[in-house]
């Protein structure tokens, strides 16, 4: 049996009756029909029928009756009772950003640092709203003014939409720029207090470009993506978790290394930051910059550029790898990488991971400064001693080339060549030079004598140098030569510059670099073939000089001028003779270049702690700053910039760094649930707050819908479940009418 609602129409009116019916079969044909057991009377309200059904079900199952107080039987009537909200405001993701800023103490820091005005609207509230917009909907500041009223930020920050206008926003940006340095100190201090002492810091440089003319700092140039734009540079120092600690806006045409050095020196002024290692990429991998970091006692880890490998006398175990086959296509790269991995396991390199092997090269001397004071020549005896050192260092295989040995001694490659010529003198003549018998002459004059091919002539000219008194100019030089030598001779501090070296090898990079080099050679050979075809065509206007210059430009573009020699020769053709080009590879130079493939040489301050493997891991963790740049470029939208003054540009960068700080903190707090900041904001965005005018005790009422399971998980991990508690929301969100501008405040 069950309950049924029957409708009857009489005189144009419909009446509904409740009936208790049961299913039976008719005797004559066996068809199932409903038989009325009892008529329960007229039903005027759907709730009556629901209560009858509830009573019937409770009686049948023996359960306690729970009366029905509302009915879903008539959805049209139920919908008619629901009142639509007067407004729907973006709420939960905005509220999380504001709450995080308060949790991290950044709201307090902004209130302390930003100068107060006579206005009742604190500048920290405007900056809070701008940070939220930069995290959630990063567009122009003009868009922020339009976006602000459509969110719950007016209620959360206590700023009316009329008070958040373009004039006030730009005025606050100017105030933020004046407090930039104090803000950086506050951020690093807060990060230190919340996460403890930093183990490592990472330093890198990026750039951004502009809409329109841009500021005075902007310069036209090629940006990281290869486009030619008016740009500026941004130096960023961050912690291992990615928190921005220091940043600096530099001119678009500025060199990266000096700007990075300046940032390092600012950190050295903070006692609790000065002993923390700073990891930077190969932009700092030149000996000149390494010496400056050593002189400033900066704890650093960086990688050398390839031309500097030989200057440090490091010996890389690459002999067994040079005979491996070169990949001829991208499809062969994986196979060649496996072969390289198997081969490198047979060397003394230690395995750090499947694609990384390392070796500790110990502590080595840092090359001395190549710059010397002009007009203060070195004495002949000192030059002879340096010449002997150059020859011996290469003969003992400490250095692969004489140029590298010269750089390690503070000489340029040209100076090293001049000094090395002195070893052409006979042994007895070299002894006389070392004893100081030709000190009154210049090194260049002695080198001219040493370069003479005829032995008799060389001995005669050398005897003249000893016997002949120098002219007045030479006498003046001889007086100053000893002082010049003293100035050029490295002091104890220079000789004491030592660094720690570690090398690591990546088989995948090894095979790719060899494949790229082989591809360049094939392209060069094709270029030479095309040029020879043109030279063989009598109608072609290409000259031999022009063809040679074309090949030289290509070699210079690939940095292969010293690895190939261009030769020209005459070739017989049907029309006569024509010139032809050919490329001859310097196999010794080529093998030397290939011995560096796949290797990275790290140099670090001798006081940097940790094993060689830990130094490798520390350097390879520099993707923390690279990820920061990815965040501010993609999520926070650092680029492009729409401001035209230097101050506004610096304020824009500061806003991006504050938004980056919030992103990093959100990622750290949600790391256990494997939720990124981007995903968290995406999940929270759908929860809006509904505004009902005149429904609350004080007037307007704010209603938050029930959060989803994903939103609840994020809020629990952040400790912010109060943001969806209806009572808390009602107390926290102040109606906009309550914070309208006062009579004393002029709103532009």
Question: Which short descriptors sum up this protein?
Answer:
748 residues, alpha+beta, Nucleotidyltransferase, domain 5, 5 domains, 10-stranded mixed sheet, 3-stranded antiparallel sheet, 29 helices, 18 strands, disordered C terminus
Summed up, what is this model?
This protein is α+β, with helices and mostly antiparallel strands and 748 residues long.
Secondary structure layout:
Blueprint: E1 2-10, E2 13-25, E3 32-42, H1 46-61, H2 75-81, E4 87-90, H3 92-103, H4 106-113, H5 123-136, H6 141-147, H7 153-157, H8 166-178, H9 180-195, E5 201-209, E6 219-222, E7 228-239, E8 244-250, H10 256-268, E9 278-280, H11 287-295, E10 300-303, H12 333-344, E11 350-353, E12 356-365, H13 380-395, H14 402-408, H15 413-420, H16 427-434, H17 443-450, H18 455-467, H19 472-488, H20 492-495, E13 498-505, H21 507-536, H22 544-557, E14 564-573, E15 576-585, H23 587-594, E16 599-605, H24 612-620, H25 623-634, H26 646-669, H27 677-684, E17 688-692, E18 701-703, H28 709-718, H29 726-732
Parallel strand pairs: 5-9, 9-10
Antiparallel strand pairs: 1-2, 2-3, 4-17, 5-7, 6-7, 7-8, 10-16, 11-12, 12-13, 13-16, 14-15, 17-18
